[in-house]
Amino acid sequence: MTLISTQTPTAELQALDSAHHMHPFTQGAGLAEKGARVITRAEGVWLTDSEGHRILDAMAGLWCVNIGYGHDSLAEVAAQQMKELPYYNTFFQTTHVPVIQLANKLAEIAPGDLNHVFFANSGSEANDTNLRMVRAYWHAKGEPDRQVVISRKNAYHGSTMAGMSLGGMAGMHSQGGIIQGIHHINQPNYWLEGGDMTPEEFGLARARELEDAILEIGPEKVAAFIGEPVQGAGGVIVAPDTYWPEVQRIIDKYGILFISDEVICGFGRTGNWFGFEYYGTKPDIITTAKGLSSGYIPIAASIVSDKVASVIDTVEFNHGYTYSGHPVAAAVALENLRIMEDMNLVDYVKNDIAPYLAEQWHALGDHPMVGDTKIVGMMASLALTPNKDTRAVFKSPAGTIGYMTRECCFGNDLIMRHVGDRMVVSPPLVITRDEVDELIKRARKSLDEAYEKIK
Ligand code: PLP
């Protein structure tokens, strides 16, 4: 084996990487040409790469490092747990202290009757669990025909077969199709699809597509609706105010289950513990991952209501993962939650840093290339446009200008992502006001550079 370290020259690391490492959501051939950026260290909101650049991570990794990088106590807790009990499973009537503690903590944090927790290792897996759980629920209730789950186009619910199918990403569906029993309705993306309607009219119209779909499929065949409070990977799409109340009304009317996918919106990102609290909806199951451990270790959790758990508990739910509730992951997640509480992080987001970021973010709206600016808590997006008055899209293939702008951001040591021609940020929740200023300064410089290229 070739011995390498962070001291190995970047070009050598890149060559070895592209020779043997298949990257997610990356074109391998492009990697071989250009080489991946090698990240070597991180602290707070700052990454360091193998060339010594200090990069502002406005994406918190993949929307997950909520408490920021560099909290040593998580490493200490993991090491201690590995020494004491590195592994045991939770199948067949066994348990252990970290998983008991974490399930109880999550039941305490999650409002209402969300009191039961099923553990997985990733958001995708947790959504697989949820799909199986809602079908098992209706089966146990004597309604086995209720199999269909309704989701939205341009939603992201993961990358496993079920997660991908639940999601509404056309580029993923086109590479091999989706599983049966998933139905997609349109997304509440006013900027792109609102036409001549007002945002309020559009929000209602898009919500009512849920009712149309239920009636078309047959209410006796619909198991659940799944939705992210704010569509993260879809481009931080914030629904008009009329949307979620109407969706909840329809869910209640037909008695279907509601899964709120909180993988991005959970653990403080919206200024609440969970995103559904921001909108006042009442989910039966929530999907959580990412911020649960701030990305320090893989762990995910479906947090389940009394209503659903009381039915699932009457049968043996034939489902589980070797690492469901892994003791080391559970101990790290607990420490992460302890830090969040200790820092009053949810309150900091709601009452301090999110309003500050919102002010600065909306100010970018004066840029000639920026149309829509949207922000909920610490997730924000802006639409790049050739004409903000008409909500026009660029003539170049969708995503060309977004990609170019992202490259300018990289050049300015800022990680800002593009989704088509929408730019998105989701920084660590611990970001300071000075760091927000720096983020905005670098974003504006990058927008200027991109604009120069297309003028
Ligand atoms: N659900 C949502 C809303 C997500 O944003 C993601 C990942 O970005 C997932 C599910 C899948 O999570 P994972 O990548 O941990 O499988």
Automatic annotation (TrEMBL):
One Gene Ontology term of the molecular function aspect: transaminase activity
InterPro entries: Aminotrans_3, Aminotrans_3_PPA_site, PyrdxlP-dep_Trfase, PyrdxlP-dep_Trfase_major, PyrdxlP-dep_Trfase_small
Domain of life: Bacteria
Cofactor(s) annotated in UniProt: pyridoxal 5'-phosphate
The entry's keywords: Aminotransferase, Pyridoxal phosphate, Transferase
Family to which the UniProt record says this protein belongs: Belongs to the class-III pyridoxal-phosphate-dependent aminotransferase family.
Protein name: Aspartate aminotransferase family protein
Organism: Marivivens niveibacter
